[in-house]
From TrEMBL:
GO biological process: DNA recombination; DNA repair
Species of provenance: Candidatus Beckwithbacteria bacterium CG10_big_fil_rev_8_21_14_0_10_34_10
PANTHER family: RECOMBINATION PROTEIN RECR
Protein name per UniProt: Recombination protein RecR
Zinc finger (C4-type): 57-72
Similarity annotation: Belongs to the RecR family.
InterPro entries registered for this protein in UniProt: DNA_Rcmb_RecR (IPR000093), Rcmb_RecR (IPR023627), Rcmb_RecR_Znf (IPR015967), TOPRIM_dom (IPR006171), TOPRIM_RecR (IPR034137)
Length: 199
């Protein structure tokens, strides 16, 4: 059966999204055919503005409407404590719990040689000037407990262990191995922070 080009194009666009297979892409496309035009236009405007109205924080590499982001510019945050994360989405998971009052540093991924992602493709080296300032007293490494996350954590540990006055900790094992931070509940994340250990 020949499918209208507009439908085929949208199905193909949805298939490019993570976790969306051909059947789900088709269901989403045909669902949108029944949505009122006004809602579709609002949806498309949100997509168009997604990159136009967001900035990457020059300090922590979080995604925000401002640079620096609200967390980095908040005077009540503990600027001596940096939590190192893989993605900005991980910040949302931690902030939901309201238990961490420090600042962040987002790597933008993990070292993954199979996908040609080395340390140079991440924001690893952007962390070093923050540590050299002498204002940071603890670095909490909170990469996901995956093989790549652990390898990235070890790489960073080797880079930063020369800072003798810096306490380096790793979030505890409240998270199951292979799980991602974005799917953890607040209690599990809270316990992971409480159970962090010093490297």
């Amino acid at each position: 059966m020949k499918i209208a080009r507009a439908i085929r194009d949208l199905v193909e666009s949805f298939e490019k999204l993570p976790g969306i297979g051909p059947k789900t892409a088709q269901r989403m496309t045909f669902y949108l055919l029944h949505v009122p035009q006004k809602d579709l236009e609002s949806f498309s405007k949100s997509l168009i503005n997604l990159k136009k109205n967001t900035k990457i924080c020059s300090l922590c590499f979080n995604i925000s409407e401002t640079d620096p982001c609200p967390i980095c510019s908040d005077p009540s945050r503990d600027k001596g404590k940096i939590c190192l994360l893989e993605q900005p989405l991980d910040i949302l998971a931690i902030e939901k719990g309201c238990f961490y009052k420090g600042v962040y540093h987002v790597l933008g991924g993990v070292i993954d040689p199979l996908n040609n992602i080395g340390p140079e493709e991440l924001h690893i080296y952007d962390l070093l000037p923050r540590l050299k300032s002498g204002k940071i007293n603890e670095l909490i490494i909170a990469t996901n407990p995956t093989i790549e996350g652990e390898a990235t954590a070890m790489y960073i540990l080797n880079l930063v262990k020369k800072y003798k006055d810096l306490k380096i900790s790793r979030i505890g094992r409240g998270l199951p191995t292979g799980a991602a931070l974005e799917y953890a509940d607040e209690l599990t994340l809270s316990k992971s922070f409480e159970g962090r250990r010093e490297y």
